[in-house]
Amino acid sequence: MNVQRNLLMLLTLTAVTGLVSAQQASAAEQTTSSSKSAESIPDFSGIWRHNSLPALVPPTSGPGPVTNRSRRKDNGVSNYAELVGDYTNPILQPWAAEVVKKKGELSLAGVTYPNPANQCWPEPPPFLFKHMAIQLLQAPDKIVMLFNEDHEVRYVRLNQSHPAKVTPSWHGDAVGHYEGGTLVIDTVGIKSDRPYAMVDLFGTPYTDRLHLVERYRLLDRDAAKGTLERAAKELWRPAGPFPPDPNYKDKFLQLDLTVEDEGAFTTPWTASVIYVRDHLEWPEIVCAENPVGFHADKEIGVPHADKADF
């Protein structure tokens, strides 16, 4: 009887020890896997700057963003003083092409037409990427994007899905995940029932069906070379404290966009934005309504009184 009892206890102890060992091995494997996964996620955090306008770089081939028909005479890049969108771009549905054409006519007439930036309204993506500086904050469950003008903040939830019914918002509902060394962000529900609903500085309109996919990667100069060359041919760089540095040795942050909207575009189209690391102090730029210099509109909407109240 004692022999049987001892044998049973030995078998039970062996089974328990084996179970604990298996659990410990599984936990160790999960920890190692999580550690490897964390190590494979690039460090996108920090301040990044592109210092160019209108910001979107056309692709090497295929459907791309609306570009400027007005070019600078000195170097042939986009003439930021005249924002005349190419309304013949085949991505535009007829009604959207007409909107772009009318905006360009205003610009050629010397009128700075209103947009979200010069009117101090929240800027929808991808218009939002006209900001020359962006700060990325990485957390296990989210990405926070800070933009350097008007304190715009965008939140991206990681490893989650869009709700079954999305409530439209200024920046839309953004969810993201990592695919190896790439951060992928999917955004829907960008508010379209609003003033100045446009995806770029040329006034290109969008509808409630706007869908944006962003892919962020860290590249060395050789890998970023093609995008940098296309940017140099297309985008205007203002004079300032952050000129292009041929000796820049750090990584480039490349954002590749895919934009689709069956309500405004004939086909999905792509564009890129290319950033360098900015080690300068984070700028604080506040948008303030200004009746001077815009639109020659006497009824600009700034409060006024017919006579002094003191």
Summarize the structure in words:
The protein has 310 residues and is α+β, with helices and mostly antiparallel strands. It has one domain. Helices cover 22% and strands 20% of the residues. The protein has three helices and nine strands; from the N terminus they run αβαββββββαββ. The protein has helices spanning 2-40, 94-108, 221-234, and strands spanning 46-49, 133-138, 142-147, 153-158, 173-179, 182-188, 211-219, 252-260, 269-277. Strands 1-2-3-4-5-6-7-8-9 form a nine-stranded mixed barrel. β2 and β3 (142-147) form a beta hairpin. The N and C termini lie far apart (108 Å).
Order of helices and strands: HEHEEEEEEHEE
- Count the beta strands: 9
Going by helix content, strand content and strand pairing, the class is alpha+beta
Average pLDDT figure: 86
The largest pleated sheet is described as:
9 strands, mixed, barrel
Radius of gyration: 26 Å
DSSP helix fraction? 10-25%
Distance between the termini: 108 Å
Spatial order of strands in the largest sheet: 1-2-3-4-5-6-7-8-9
In what range is the share of β-strand residues? 15-25%
